[in-house]
Each structure stands twice: as C-alpha cells, then as structure tokens.
Amino acid sequence: MFRKKAFKKLSAMFLLGISVLGAGFATAQQQVQASSFSKFADVASYQDSSESFFQNLATGDVAGVVIKLTEGTGYVNPKAAAQIKSAQAAGMKVSLYHYARYSGYNSAKNEADFFANTAESYGLDKSTVMVADVEDSSMSNPYGDTQTFQAELAARGYSNQVTYSMASWFWYNKVPTNYPIWVANYGVNQPGVDNAAAWQYTSNYNGMNLDMSYDFTGLFTNNSVSQAPSTDANTTVTTNSSANVATVGSKAARAVTSTGKVVRYFDAGSQWRKNGIVLINGKTAYAVGDNVYLYQDDTTQAGIVTINAANSGVTAVNKQGKAISGSSSKFTNGSQWLINSVTTINDKPAYQVSDTEYIMASDANGSGNN
Asked: According to the model, what pLDDT value does residue 14 have?
C-alpha cells in the first residue's frame, strides 16, 4: 500500500494514546511493548503466493494478512486466489483490500460492487474484513466518495469494514472515520492518529519489502492484547474497591460518544475506570472518558446489575420511583441480579430486576460512587 521512506528507526516501545484509569485519551499514557500486539501483513501481486511464504510469516508471529483483491473497476490481483488459499492453509486470518480510484457517486458505487462481486467469486463470506485503501492523489472527494463506497458495501451485507490511509489524510479529515481506521505512518514510535484500530509501521518488514502492521483490536488477527491495569484496578467486582472498574469482555469493544458514534475500540480484557451510567440508544453505557462511553453489554457486567451500596444495601423502587420498604435487606452490597430490562425513572436510568422492583443505576457498579 502506502509507500514512504522511513527516516527514524522504529522504537521498541510506543505510546498507545490511552490511559487505563484516566479521564481521557491524551495524557499520562502507559507504555506498551509493541511486540505485545499481534502483527498482520498486507500483500499484493508483488509478494509470493506460495504456502511456504505464508507459513514462514506465521512462524514469525504474523497472525493475519490483508490481500489486495481489486483496484478501480477493472483490476484483479492475479495472485489473489493462491494467496488466499496459502494464507488460510497457514492458519492466518484473511482480510481483503480495494485500492480506490473512484471520483464521484456512481464511480464509488461501481468500485464497491466490483470489490464485493470479486470477493464473492473467491468464496469469502460476508464476515470478511473489507478495507477501503484510500490514498490515491487523483481522488477529488475521497471523504464523500469513500462514504458512498462503504455504504454500498454495507448494502451488500459487508459490515466489517475498515478505512486505510496515511496519517496526514486522517489529520486533515480527508477520509471518514465512521468505520475502524488503519493508519500508515512509518519511521515514528506511534500511529500519530487517535483511535487507530491498526498501525502500519513499516514497508520493509525483516528486509522483505513487505508492509507490516500492529493490530490493536484483534480485527485483523482474531487476537487482542490488553494493557496491564493499574494496581488498584482489580478484576473482581464483588467489593467497592473495584465497583467502578469496567472490564471489557472476551471480544474487543466499541467506545462511543453520547450519540452512539464509534470513536475507537477497546482491547478484550482491558480495564477502564467508570464514572457514571447513562442510556445511549436504549442501552446502558459507562462513562470512561470525556464524551467516551463503553456499553455495559460489552463488559463482564453484561446482563447483570451489581449493587454498589455505601452501607449494607440499597432500596429498590417501583416503576413510579416509590421506595419499596425493606428491600435493602435483599439488595445487599455486592449482590448481583439479572436484568429484565433497562428504562428511565424520573429521567434517570434504572434496571428492572423483577416484575415490580427496579434498581437505580446510581446504586450500581459503574455509577462512580465509592
């Protein structure tokens, strides 16, 4: 894909740009070993298609590959079929990319259909990660046309989409970020763009003239590595000491704004300080940063409410918000209850835990109360 001369040696460590227990993403970052993240290569007709080539990559801890499939509306990588077969035989996750040349609405739709039709002809299903490689300098409206391209792919049933470009195009808002982003930025010690799902850090991996990337979310490799939590962020949630630490579940999770717009992804198993519970599009979400939220369903608290009581228990309320006498002896601190539904009572989120009983979100883990 993107070609740029590397001017500095890649540091062995980089800053991911997030803080496990901070209020946002931009300060006091933890350093994370780059080698902790799974790697994936992208290949085109320039690279080998033999099974031994991909087996050697897999032996070197490369867990995925993104194969160039199409370009414009007339080019198909002649090695694509063999590269897909060999990569699969090597146990690697296979994703596909399209080199975009579109200019205008119809052109973008036609390229999307060409990409989708070709992917289908190679027998890859709709769950395949489909990448829009947006970098060609001849494009007149890369932002809007990429949205058209991606909307057409979505209409064809492809929901796992990614936008790839160089860091500067993301800096200057030349490409959309409604899907996860994959940033090319060489010769530096970090992606240089907030909320990157993946970072292509070199175009000459091990002297092989091969682009290589780190996968921060598992999207390209089915692997995900969590940052080490701070010492006070325990994994258990049965005491108040960890009542406001959210642990992402077994899959990478969306981080969204208050309107539900995805702004990045959190690693499976990573932990985040919760500072309040809100409803976003009818779902409970934990506040974990400045206008950054994590859906409860994407955490280890999915489907349950854990009582966070300052004293021994909390008092449940009925649907009208009236306190239910004596219920605090039932809803004791640390006890967990299945959620029947989520609603609002007096304009505040509440969990229904029985036909008549509701627990206010302000009395649950994640409320921010100690």
From this structure: 38
